[in-house]
Amino acid sequence: MLTPAESQALLLSLKVSLVAVAFALPFAVLGALLLARARFPGKPLVDGLLHLPLVLPPVVMGYLLLLVFGTRAPIGAWLLHDLGLRLAFDWKGAALAAAIITFPFQLRAIRLSLESMDKGLSEAAATLGAGPLDRLLNVTFPLALPGILVGLVTAFSASLGEFGAIITFVSNIPGETQTLPLAIYSAIQSPGGEVEAARLSLLSIVLALIGLTVAEFAGRRLRERYR
Amino acid sequence: MSVECAIRHSFGAFALDVEFGVEHRGITALFGPSGAGKTTVTNAIAGLFRPHEGRIVLDGETVFDSTSGRFVRPQSRGAVAVFQDARLFPHMTVKQNLFFGWRRAKNRVALSEVERVFDLLGIGALLQRRPAKLSGGEKSRVALGRALLASPRLLLLDEPLAALDAQRKAEIMPYLERLRDDANIPMIYVTHSLDEVTRLADHLIVMQQGRIGAQGSVFDLLPRLEFETLGREGAYGAVLRATVSQHRSDGLSMLGFDGGTLAIPKISRPVGTKLRVRLRAEDIMLARDEPKAISANNILPAIVDDVRADGPSHADVRLRCGNTRLVARITQSSVARLGIAPGQHLYAVIKSVIVDPQRGRETDD
């Protein structure tokens, strides 16, 4: 059904997106807790900074990533030589770019579910003897699960579609960094690639629909259980 | 177990300034209209709210002191709260909810005691269910059970019945009565319902606009308070402790109290059972001479303590029957017609005696 090149792009996209959302999740949870629960000076600024990837042109994000993590940039060189971790022109770099770009989707979803959560349940847990971490792990997070799930799926879907930051940071290398959108771009660029572009686009649409259906179904199951 | 609580706090124009002590097991009602600051007080005791000033001592341990800056966190206070909306954890089963506090308690109650709590509250059959599948009354009972299993030093019940309709209230009330009589835990019970106070409380603290209006034993204090203060509820009247003294062949049971005897339609409790009896102010008529040909079974000689006008047409007449205080609510016109004045000897004609369905406490205090 799929040509080897197509399945390669599909599998790479899935791998990049999975790693991206998994990597961004803990940061999104921490950020959401910070914004939903803590009060500190400069909070609007932090709020803005955390949401920056949402409004910044992805190309700019890719460029910034090159500046920081390029092989000759200080952090990039250190990661490469001392830890053997290569980001530039590597699928891991693509995952990092996707993680940063889609981080705000997770952050927003988790923050909303934390803010709409009944504070009373946490208070009840406290008088029953549960400390702050205990309450977070056993009351707050399980109750935020529908929100976390929605955030994960949205971020995953957005990751699958990320183009600008990836192509700028890690280039367009088939089998290494060429995810579905990049493959579509290449197909459109090459003469006679219209059919290929159409097939890959159809694949992207199917993937997006599956993602949305899964999110809707899982969200409904969770909410029914709680209500 | 004792509670000492002295706190001051201001929320803009509203100032909270209360000081009280609870030395008893049994139920202390924190009674007052909504907005009086009752919940703020219980939240402060639980550690969910930190007042500007004051001191709270639970069982000799200072858990809050604004001068030294001491503030013990709620999870370490042992003051377990039961809220109006039950606040069961929706992602856990009833069983997981019930054991939430138990698993975290320093001195876990034995499993045999757990069984007893399940029986007491009738929740043994609900264990595998999720809170979403429970009725309002069942939720309240599970919330009570969850609190009891956490080995609390003190139970804070914040309007536990307010969210329930009359039928559900009637369903839970006996459980609360049993809890009061059986559990050896002091309870602070926030309510704006005089009916709940008269049925459940041993001790009463009346709150108004952030301050304490009056406090004392329910038996002593209730008849001395004004109808107005108590929210103009039909439950206004006296609560007394009585003991079943005799079951007569004419279909009446006799209840002895400190000041006389009451006759009521036969009840099934054995002689010697202690009961709470309520005499509503509206159910007492007054007569200057002893009425002879009258259908009422209970005519008690009483002495007038004082008479206070209550609204445009009514008056509260406070009476003493031996050592027991009663109050009658009659019209000012009747007061004038009978010439009722302090010190006067009268006859109180009791139209109806309300005996609470559960047995009263076994101990005297």
Gross morphology of chain A is globular
Structural class of chain B: alpha+beta
Major β-sheet of chain B, in short? Answer: 6 strands, mixed
Q: Averaging pLDDT over every residue of chain B, what do you get?
A: 88
By secondary-structure content and strand pairing, the structural class of chain A works out as mainly alpha
The CA-CA distance between the termini of chain B, in Å, is 15 Å
Q: Could you tell me which chain pair has the largest interface and how many residues each side has?
A: A-B, 20 and 28 residues
Strand fraction of chain B? 35-45%
Order of helices and strands of chain B: EEEHEEEEHHHEHEHEEHEEEEEEEEHEE
- What oligomeric state best describes the polypeptide chains here? heterodimer
- State the end-to-end distance of chain A: 43 Å
Mean pLDDT of chain A: 90
Say how many strands of chain B there are. 21
Strand order of the largest sheet of chain B: 7-8-9-3-10-11
DSSP helix fraction of chain A: over 70%
Strand content of chain A: under 5%
Tell me, what's the shape of chain B? Answer: globular
In percent, how helical is the residue content of chain B?
10-25%
Q: State the order of secondary-structure elements of chain A, H for helix, E for strand.
A: HHHHHHHHHH
Describe this structure in words.
- The complex is a heterodimer of chains A (227) and B (365).
- Chain A is mainly alpha-helical and 227 residues long.
- In chain A, 80% of the residues lie in helices and 0% in strands.
- Chain A has helices at 4-37, 43-55, 58-69, 74-82, 91-115, 119-127, 132-160, 164-170, 180-189, 194-226.
- The radius of gyration of chain A is 20 Å and the shape is globular.
- The termini of chain A are far apart.
- In chain B, strand 13 (252-257) and strand 14 form a beta hairpin.
- Chain B is α+β, with helices and mostly antiparallel strands and 365 residues long.
- Chain B has a six-stranded mixed β-sheet, sandwiched between helices. A five-stranded antiparallel β-sheet of chain B has the order 2-1-4-5-6, with helices on one face.
- Mean pLDDT of chain B is 88; it is low at 359-365.
- Chain B has eight helices and 21 strands.
- The longest helix of chain B is centred in the middle third of the chain and has 17 residues, at 166-182.
- The radius of gyration of chain B is 22 Å and the shape is globular.
- Chain B has helices spanning 38-46, 94-104, 111-121, 136-149, 166-182, 194-200, 218-221, 332-338; strands at residues 3-11, 14-22, 26-31, 53-58, 61-65, 70-71, 79-82, 154-158, 186-191, 203-208, 211-217, 237-247, 252-257, 260-265, 274-280, 284-287, 298-310, 314-321, 324-331, 345-350, 354-355.
- Classes of the chains: A mainly alpha (227), B alpha+beta (365).
- The interface between A and B is medium-sized, with 20 and 28 residues.
